[in-house]
Amino acid sequence: MGKEQNLIIGLDIGTTKICAMVGELNPQTEEVEIIGVGTYPSFGLKRGVVVNIENTIQSVKNAVEEAEHMAGCEIRTVFVGIAGGHIKGISGHGMITIREREVARRDLDRVIESANAVLIPADREIIHVIPQEYIVDGQAGIKDPVGIYGIKLETKVHIVTGQVTAAQNLVKCIHGAGMDVADVVLEQLASSEAVLTEDEKEIGVVLIDCGGGTTDIAIFVGGSIRYTENVTLGGDNIDRDIALGLSTPLAEARKIKEKHGTALAELVSPEEEIEVPSVGGKHFRKVSRKDLAMVIEPRMEEIFALAKTEIQKSGYAELVPAGVVITGGSVIMNGTVELSERVLEMPVRMGIPTAVGGLTDIIANPVYSTGVGLVMYGAGYTGDKKLRIRDENVFKKIFDSMKNWFQEFF
Ligand SMILES: Nc1ncnc2c1ncn2[C@@H]1O[C@H](COP(=O)(O)OP(=O)(O)OP(=O)(O)O)[C@@H](O)[C@H]1O
Ligand SMILES: [Mg+2]
């Protein structure tokens, strides 16, 4: 059995699949190696949110068991992803007086905590308070103010909140599967850790994680997260379109999409034919791959058009010269990069988790971005290590408050 203390486990509870990812931290190199992956179809979520506890617990157990088997370890505590239409990102601001006239590390905790004191409705809970920059006596844009003389310390933060009940249901599933939660992490924040480079985050970049149930967006400028949003459309909608458009069962529609789907119809020649089972399942019909693509393309177009609207609404559209990185299972489809570039009118690349070692050939797939990212987040993996370490107390405090409150509930 592996040593617990060096293992970091990410649990991506997605709408289409649940993925348990086991990372091993090498304390010498501070690098993470993925040593186990388990995936199992997800039957208990809708649009990124748990709607059936029992089904979710069962899938979690199956995914975790597979990962444990591969890694030769026992999984007890996980970093779990959260997503869905209930998630909201807002900007916040904190301000304190510097006690010793020189910024100390604990002042950073205090100032972030003061930003945390925003009024949020009783049915919502804070998931993250992420500092973007510090301001000392009006001097803005400071990344690490420790040691600087001053009187007033301010911080600009990005606050992510979610529905209390959605988070509770998520935690309930993990407890039900016999495990504890180390932290609840916004899914696109995790995916960002896995697929964005530090340079991209510094220059300005958009991440779009297009999964089965939701399409999650995160915008980074100047090395910090500035904006998070989501569009509650994903691969599931494409499956439904195909089922309707080609009169075939939903499960077949997904298979056909994954095997023969193309996001851009012009890339397919009309001569290519595929066999599509009918709804009764008795006979097959021949359909051209181009017709299939013509069902898929408008939905993919809609997803990226809605993402574009969100990017424009964010106010950061002109501040992201590094363009867009797309990830998640739905971007695997041929033609997705080309189509999204056309719709978004920005340069696009596909994001695949590559920054960690271990089972690299398995995890080099956009469906694993969130799982790998959760492990990296859990390991405190980020270009600016100092930033994470000094934030840890704050995260811990926030999490402790969440934990208390979970205990209250159960
Ligand atoms: N080869 C492929 N071609 C086309 N689509 C694919 C392929 N592989 C997976 N997909 C699609 O990707 C989607 C699943 O992606 P992903 O695993 O990122 O979603 P999820 O994490 O389960 O869902 P969400 O994040 O929305 O809750 C499904 O719609 C699936 O059909
Ligand atoms: Mg996902």
CATH class of the domain at 88-162, anyone? Alpha Beta
The class by helix and strand makeup works out as: alpha/beta
Helix run count: 12
Tell me the overall shape: globular
Oligomer: single chain
| Biggest sheet: strand arrangement | 11-6-1-2-3-19
CATH architecture of the domain at 88-162: 2-Layer Sandwich
Radius of gyration: 22 Å
Give the overall average pLDDT: 91
Total strands: 19
Question: Spans of 5+ residues with little confidence (pLDDT < 50)?
Answer: 382-399, 403-410
CATH topology-level name of the domain at 88-162: Dna Ligase, domain 1
Structure ligands: adenosine-5'-triphosphate, magnesium ion
- Determine the fraction of residues in helical runs and give it as a percent range: 25-40%
β-strand percent reads 25-35%
Furnish the topology, listing elements before pairings.
Elements: E1 7-13, E2 17-26, E3 31-41, E4 45-46, E5 49-50, H1 53-71, E6 77-82, E7 88-97, H2 105-115, E8 124-136, E9 139-142, E10 152-163, H3 164-176, E11 180-186, H4 187-195, H5 198-203, E12 205-210, E13 215-221, E14 224-231, H6 235-245, H7 250-260, E15 273-277, E16 284-288, H8 289-314, E17 324-327, H9 336-344, E18 348-350, E19 357-358, H10 360-363, H11 369-378, H12 385-409
Parallel strand pairs: 1-6, 3-19, 6-11, 12-17, 17-18
Antiparallel strand pairs: 1-2, 2-3, 4-5, 7-10, 8-9, 8-10, 12-13, 13-14, 15-16
Magnesium ion (MG) binds next to loops.
Structure commentary:
The longest helix is centred in the last third of the chain and has 26 residues. This protein is of the alpha/beta class and 410 residues long. α6 packs across α7. Among the domains are: 75 residues, Dna Ligase, domain 1 (2-Layer Sandwich), CATH 3.30.1490; 49 residues, ATPase, substrate binding domain, subdomain 4 (Actin, Chain A, domain 4, Alpha-Beta Complex). The chain contains twelve helices and 19 strands. The structure holds adenosine-5'-triphosphate and magnesium ion.
